[in-house]
Amino acid sequence: MIEKYVVDSSQVEAMTFEWGALQWLVNQQSAEDAEMTIGVCTIAPGERNSEHFHPNCEEVLFVLEGECDHTLGDEIVHLTPGMMIRCPADMRHYAVNNGDEPMKALVIFSVPDRETMNVE
Q1: Beta bridge partners of 6
Q2: What is the arrangement of strands in the sheet containing 103-109, beginning at the earlier edge strand?
Q3: Which of 25, 73, 96, 109 could bridge to 37 as Cys pair (CB 3.0-4.6 Å)?
Q4: What confidence score (pLDDT) does residue 70 get?
Q5: What is the pLDDT of residue 41?
Q6: Which residues fall within 8 angstroms of residue 106, CB to CB, at 6 or more apart?
Q7: What integer pLDDT is reported at residue 48 of this predicted model?
């Protein structure tokens, strides 16, 4: 029974994009009783994800490796390992990896069925 609550990230396929990858560890699709969405976001050096917002939830991004410049609304903050940013619902944001190595971050959303609206 406990096995349904354990996730081995090496067994979870990542969605790849031109800018990097998203690996969803838990969400409504993987566990119908989940109450949040958790994943790992990787942005390649010199790349950025598209500007977007989440109308139904807030997002927390915690940098594990590398660094990025994260735009939240009209402000930019430089994030390094151990730093976290909270993106309120409906606030536009995106991250740029200006470093020499991939930026890897844990991303957590307050709902299991996060919605994403791309601005670009």
Answers
A1: none
A2: 15-16, 20-26, 37-43, 103-109, 59-65, 84-87
A3: 109
A4: 98
A5: 98
A6: 38, 39, 40, 41, 61, 62, 64
A7: 97
Is 120's pLDDT higher than 90?
Answer: no
Q: What is the pLDDT of residue 2?
A: 86
Strand-strand pairing, 59-65 and 103-109 = antiparallel
What average pLDDT does the segment 74-97 reach?
A: 98
Give the Cβ contact number of residue 37 at 10 Å.
Answer: 23
Alpha helices in the chain (DSSP H): none
Give me 108's structure tokens: 């957590």
Q: Mean pLDDT throughout 68-78?
A: 97
CB-count exposure of residue 10 (10 Å: 0-12, 13-18, 19+): exposed
How many other β-carbons are positioned within 10 Å of the β-carbon of residue 87? 22
